[in-house]
Design brief:
The protein is mainly α. Helix content is about 85%, strand content about 0%. The mean pLDDT is about 85.
Length: about 450
């Protein structure tokens, strides 16, 4: 572990240049998401649970978009390493077609069938009513969100991280200001409650998509070009793309359905548990953002090297990322335990929700090292070389063979308190770690795809 301190200016310079802006972008996103929940918490546990339930649909879409875009980023990083700009534009075009199509389908569900969707994630009628109000409005934002995902991930693969970071931060600040104005009715506007939060997010996501497209053209970035250049791809090119990306999309979709099943279990356990997990997972994101930045930097750096056939350096960097991830994860575990009570106390929710959220965060802190290493290995290392079928099987097996059965047994059969149910759900991370580490050292992921 001492070798992690060993001087490697190229590694650390590139890690900081790519990882820090992404981590900071995610940090601001998570911090202001927490502010959103804080604002909504003033409306009571029902509002928190309703918006949390409604956002489970967005969580499913988010993972679909993440799968499509992160799969695309595999090619973007390798094509950028090879300096093949024409193919870069084509993979962006395919990504936009798939992502926009998925966003459109989710939009139809949210706008036309909000109550039906809320019935999947909640049992209490007041929670369903609040969540349906939110879904009818927020559903209009999903297609814009799909466009943003595609551009952000391709730009990251090209090492352009500051422009997406700046745009996202600006839009989040706009979102937060509009929340303050529309939820509470400031500056002469009507107090709209959860509907105000939905309108604020809708406006911010439209703004983000428009600014990303305008920035690519204004700054004349390499992927700037005529519309035809994005969609002028052959069947063979699409086949090559889908061979690698389809398992990533399938991975995220099946994994997200598993997570939605967890949400179903939490919903069956009652409003207090739903509010607890909404609060817990919002705070968790704040502590995990640095690792998302690290795994994204890992995928880009290794992808760039693999595109240039620098396989030995890619493997060496993979080991560095794991060691560094473990060091930071242990520190973060201690920090979560130390701050859990203080952070939870900031929210205007019932004492029961605060109590169970604090205990759930302590459970989460124990699993942080396992989650972090799996994140770096699956999203960063293995996917960078196109080893997507293995990661799909690993993630699906973890959720459906371990997490989901344990959630039903502990939550609905044994009727344990939420902190124990959450501990059982997260146990999948321990099992996945064994297989992901073994796969990394097999070197079967060291592939130049382009």
């Amino acid at each position: 572990m001492v070798n992690i301190i060993k001087n490697d200016q190229h590694f650390y310079k590139k890690l900081l240049a790519i990882g820090l802006p992404i981590a900071f972008q995610n940090f601001i996103t998570s911090a202001l998401n927490m502010v959103d929940v804080f604002m909504i918490s003033s409306l009571g546990d029902t509002a928190v649970a309703g918006v949390g339930g409604a956002n489970k649909l967005y969580f499913l879409l988010n993972l679909f978009l993440f799968g499509t875009s992160s799969g695309t980023a595999i090619f973007a990083a390798q094509y950028w390493g090879k300096k093949d700009i024409s193919s870069l534009k084509k993979v962006l075009g395919i990504c936009l077609v798939i992502a926009f199509s998925g966003g459109f389908i989710f939009s139809i569900g949210a706008i036309c069938f909000p109550s039906f969707i809320m019935n999947i994630f909640a049992q209490d009628e007041p929670v369903i009513v609040e969540g349906a109000k939110y879904l009818r409005i927020i559903g209009w934002s999903y297609c814009f969100n799909a466009v943003s995902f595609g551009y952000i991930f391709v730009l990251r693969g090209m090492n352009y991280v500051k422009i997406p970071m700046g745009i996202t931060i600006l839009c989040i600040l706009v979102n937060t200001f509009l929340n303050w104005m529309l939820i509470y009715g400031h500056l002469g506007f009507e107090a709209l409650g959860v509907r105000g939060a939905a309108y604020a997010t809708l406006i911010a996501r439209i703004l983000e998509a428009c600014l990303l497209i305008l920035s690519v053209n204004f700054f004349k970035l390499p992927i700037c070009g005529r519309i035809k250049s994005y969609f002028n791809f052959s069947k063979d090119f699409v086949k090559q793309y889908l061979t690698t990306v389809a398992p990533v999309i399938g991975n995220e979709v099946m994994w997200s359905l598993g997570v939605a099943t967890y949400a179903f279990v939490y919903g069956c356990m009652g409003q207090t548990v739903m509010a607890t997990m909404t609060l817990t997972q919002t705070i968790e994101q704040l502590f995990m953002v640095w690792f998302f930045g690290m795994s994204s930097a890992c995928a880009v750096m290794l992808g760039n090297d693999l595109g240039q056939d620098k396989l030995d350096r890619a493997f060496s960097y993979a080991k560095k990322f794991i060691k560094l991830g473990i060091l930071v994860a242990v520190f973060m575990s201690v920090l979560v335990i130390a701050l859990s009570g203080t952070v939870v106390s900031l929210f205007n929710v019932s004492e029961d929700v605060k109590y169970f959220a604090r205990l759930s965060l302590i459970v989460f802190s124990i699993y942080i090292p396992f989650k972090v290493v799996n994140l770096i290995l699956i999203v960063g290392v293995l996917r960078s070389g196109g080893d997507t079928r293995f990661t799909m099987l690993l993630d699906m097996g973890g959720v459906w063979l371990i997490g989901v059965p344990l959630a039903f047994i502990s939550g609905l059969w044994l009727k344990l308190d939420i902190q124990y149910v959450y501990a059982f759900v997260l146990f999948e991370e321990v099992v996945k770690l064994i297989f992901s580490v073994k796969r990394m050292y097999s070197k079967k992921w060291l592939n130049n795809l382009v």
